Amino acid sequence: MLLKLSLTGLKGRWRDYAVLFSGLMIAAGIFYMFQSMASNDDFLSSNSPVAMTAIIFQLGSVLLAIITLVYILYANSFLMSMRQKDYAMFMMLGAKQRKIALLIFIETFIIGLLATILGSAIGVGLSSIVSKLLTNQLDIQVTNFSVFSSKALLITLVFFTILFLLAATINASSIVKKPILSLLKANETPTASRRRPVILSLEAVGGIVLLGIGYYMMDNIAKIGLLALIIALITIVLGSYFVFHSVMIFVLNLLKRSDNLRLKKLNNFTLSQLSFRIQDYTKMLSMVSIIFALALGALTVGLGFHNEIPKMTEQTSTYDLLLNNAQDADQKQVENLNPTLDVSYQLKEDKNTIYFNQEQFDEEPLNAIYYDTTPKKTTYSGKELANDEAKMDSLRTLLLPEQQEKELSMVPEDKFRSLSQQTSSLQVVQVKDFMAQKDRIQKIVTENIKQNPSLAQGQFAMNQKYDIYNLYNETFSGLEFMGFFLGIAFLTMLASCLMFKILSGAASDVVRYDMLNKIGTRMSLLKKSIRKEIAVLFLAPGILGAIHVLFGLKMFTSLLTEPYAGIWLPFLIFFVLYLLYYFLTIWLYTDIVLKKKESS
């Protein structure tokens, strides 16, 4: 009988549980996806270009595990707020506390377990999609990758099972210890919001000062080091808390003093609703702003790393294509690249020395890179190369491995022609757009290695621009995908946490909206008031979180040449997803507080 009543209660709140359930599934699915990428040993061992992404995805799993723990705690709180009155009624009907505790434990654990299993199934699909995106991004063909990983599934099930066992135990022990009256009246207990103006002012100033310190530390992390990151983390968390705990109350009180605003339609009711609940929402709004910053930051930095790939490749490469022993190369393929520069430097070599025609380098100087504070490109004439061994090393890096060990010599054209050794050539090519031509260049590079097998050995495989591009692409693509999926996972969880918090207080608002309805308030005004109230609760942490990100990107100036480039894209993605959660929360909240009124 008790189980039947419980199932009836669950059925009656299926919309709320659907939101909770979907959030848990997404968390489990993304966690599985990260694990399947990082723990697929056969895939990683047989595809060396993606081996570095294992560490990246493991790091993502750790971060996701931490935020998932926070998310489940809030989701668990929402679950209890929905069901505690039902449990109180069961106790009033004579149900034993032991039975209630067992029922709560089973409900919580079953919901979590089902969400984990279905989420893992979603994760298999995500793994398939992401693996294709990742390998396409890395421009490689992969083998031995299976979207289903028993190891990843086991890790996911064990992790989430432990979490839900913990949550179920906490739920069961907390509910049975509370008096029945406390359970029945829990959502009707107000939170005091009156505080002394002096304390309010001190908190507001303190919050702004703490945020300023945190932003300064992030801007100077390169100078101060790890200590700056620790200080920034502490001050920004505390600053966010004080801002919501004081500044929002100050602003709401200020708005309520304006008769033109306060007395217009239901604005006074809406402002009073926010003032009444703001202290209870302080911790939640602070947490949401921090996670919002982490989520948006992860996505922004991830896309930023993607933009860095061609930039860093360009900074560390002098030519788009090198052809050693170029007389063996297919020149028709080179012509199809429509090169903007195509030069062949002649060379002759004996046992110890390689000779170059100096006049050729005077006519077409060698492109080189020198390092000041940052890599800078320059050119060296034949005369400069002949008189400076350090500059000659720029030419040495373009040669075959066995040639790099020899002495290099620039000689006049007549002397070069008098040498009896066979003439070979080093062909250097530049194109208008390397990224657009990289597939064609890759084919020519492959042929060049076949003609010169020593190029495939160790560090000598990295003298081509295409190989350097692959190295950066391997590293940064993993960071890009980790940032993208972490960002989406964080956003889903933070928006769900905020939504659960708002919905958990909806039951106590029914009486207030019922009273307004009875005195003749139009339904359109009630719905508009709901939209405004929820908009403030969504917008406030979103704005502060965005500010955190704008300052936080300063920390990545050492890794990203332009951390703010293309920032509109991740902001747009977040705005759309955040807006969807806003509308979903309005729909669910309205259904709770106005459902009875619309039907009457």
From TrEMBL:
InterPro entries associated with the record: ABC-4_Integral_Memb_Prot, ABC3_permease_C, ABC_permease_BceB-typ
Topological relation to the membrane, as annotated: Multi-pass membrane protein
Domain ABC3 transporter permease C-terminal: 61-179
Transmembrane parts of this sequence: 17-35, 55-79, 100-126, 152-176, 197-218, 224-255, 284-305, 481-503, 534-553, 565-589
Pfam families: FtsX
UniProt-annotated location(s): Cell membrane
Keyword Lipid metabolism assigned: no
Source taxon at top rank: Bacteria
Keyword Nucleotide-binding: no
PANTHER family named in the record: ABC TRANSPORTER PERMEASE, ABC TRANSPORTER PERMEASE-RELATED-RELATED
Sequence similarity: Belongs to the ABC-4 integral membrane protein family.
Protein name: ABC transporter permease
